[in-house]
């Protein structure tokens, strides 16, 4: 079997199109422009690239983008003050604090200072609790993007065996909650799981979110299973013609061997990554609609 490639890049463009339509309606009918504020502390090059890309796409769908770039040595008090101001600003409907934060800042404390209604990352404890109890919440962008692709590919995923590899608060745990809410039988596997390979082999749906380049190989995968690769790993790829080092982006899944047995698979790049950003925009327009007591867009949240 050769797997169907789930084109996250194309699907993300469709999601952004829907977001754009809803933004246009909010403007035309209510004179409201959704706004997303991104806070970046420090100058981590990868983070800068992501923040730039988020800002560009925010503007492309017709929303306002506010960027707050703070010095790497910013104190917790200063950062909390910025968040307080964004919480109080009626033009800001979504707030994202780029992670990871520098070591001297307590990310739990900082995240929990964000107004839960503006927490478009879905990381605030209130949103975590709401999601865990199946109530309306802000849903973390990466797991939401994975869920959207699974629903699009399968229609219903009810009753399927899902194995999530990775137990992070950002991906693994919320992903498991979403799959459970959609009536999957869910296993969360991680670095201490015994017989990881056998566990994965039973899965109809595998979500790999461990941060280990190409760890999941084709011999782990059940024939016809759907494989969602959340990993974004930049690995060595020899030297360029001019002798400088070259890198390559790979997932947590060994694509070639898994694509040979899976029924469907997401590529890296062009899979989960673009969906993450599309879902961030979707969450922002959802937050803006809720803040104004308006009907929220359909099909853009869990
Ligand atoms: N508060 C917070 N929320 C986040 O959502 C968040 C964060 N912090 N910190 C960093 C990670 C990383 N992240 C990505 C988003 C898109 C791509 C993406 O679009 N990747 C492209 C490739 C990009 C490339 O070539 O490097 C792709 O997979 O096709 C990747 C990674 C969001 N993050």
UniProtKB/TrEMBL annotation:
Protein name: Bifunctional protein FolD
Domain Tetrahydrofolate dehydrogenase/cyclohydrolase NAD(P)-binding: 140-290
Role played: Catalyzes the oxidation of 5,10-methylenetetrahydrofolate to 5,10-methenyltetrahydrofolate and then the hydrolysis of 5,10-methenyltetrahydrofolate to 10-formyltetrahydrofolate.
Residues the entry annotates as binding NADP(+): 166-168, 232
Family of this protein: Belongs to the tetrahydrofolate dehydrogenase/cyclohydrolase family.
Single GO molecular function: methenyltetrahydrofolate cyclohydrolase activity
Complex formation: Homodimer.
Biological process annotations from GO: L-histidine biosynthetic process; methionine biosynthetic process; purine nucleotide biosynthetic process; tetrahydrofolate interconversion
GO cellular component terms, semicolon-separated: cytosol
Catalytic activity of the protein: (6R)-5,10-methenyltetrahydrofolate + H2O = (6R)-10-formyltetrahydrofolate + H(+); (6R)-5,10-methylene-5,6,7,8-tetrahydrofolate + NADP(+) = (6R)-5,10-methenyltetrahydrofolate + NADPH
Entry EC no(s): 1.5.1.5, 3.5.4.9
This protein's pathway: One-carbon metabolism; tetrahydrofolate interconversion
Xref: Pfam families: THF_DHG_CYH, THF_DHG_CYH_C
Record keywords: Amino-acid biosynthesis, Histidine biosynthesis, Hydrolase, Methionine biosynthesis, Multifunctional enzyme, NADP, One-carbon metabolism, Oxidoreductase, Purine biosynthesis
Tetrahydrofolate dehydrogenase/cyclohydrolase catalytic domain: residues covered: 6-121
């Amino acid at each position: 079997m050769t797997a169907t490639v789930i084109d996250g890049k194309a699907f993300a463009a469709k999601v952004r199109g829907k977001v754009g339509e809803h933004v246009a309606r909010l403007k035309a009918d209510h004179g409201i422009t959704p706004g997303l504020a991104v806070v970046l502390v420090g100058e981590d090059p990868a983070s800068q690239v992501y923040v730039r890309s988020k800002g560009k796409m925010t503007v492309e769908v017709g929303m306002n983008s506010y960027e707050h770039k703070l010095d790497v040595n910013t104190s917790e008090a200063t950062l909390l003050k910025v968040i307080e101001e964004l919480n109080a600003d009626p033009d800001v409907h979504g707030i994202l604090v780029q992670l990871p934060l520098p070591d001297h800042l307590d990310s739990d404390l900082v995240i929990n200072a964000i107004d839960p209604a503006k927490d478009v990352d879905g990381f605030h404890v209130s949103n975590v609790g709401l999601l865990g109890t199946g109530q309306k919440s802000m849903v973390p962008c990466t797991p939401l993007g994975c869920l959207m692709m699974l629903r699009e590919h399968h229609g219903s995923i009810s009753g399927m065996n899902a194995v999530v590899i990775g137990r992070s608060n950002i991906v693994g745990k919320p992903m498991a909650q979403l799959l459970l809410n959609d009536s999957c039988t869910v296993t969360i596997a991680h670095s201490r799981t015994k017989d990881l390979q056998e566990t994965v082999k039973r899965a109809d749906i595998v979500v790999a979110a461990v941060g280990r380049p190409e760890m999941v190989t084709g011999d782990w995968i059940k024939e016809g299973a759907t494989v969602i690769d959340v990993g974004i790993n930049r690995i060595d790829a020899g030297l360029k013609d001019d002798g400088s080092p070259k890198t390559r982006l790979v997932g947590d899944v060994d694509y070639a061997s898994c694509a040979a047995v899976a029924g469907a698979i997401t590529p890296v790049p062009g899979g989960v990554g673009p969906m993450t950003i599309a879902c961030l925009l979707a969450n922002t327009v959802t937050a803006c609609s809720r803040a104004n007591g308006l009907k929220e867009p359909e099909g853009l949240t869990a």
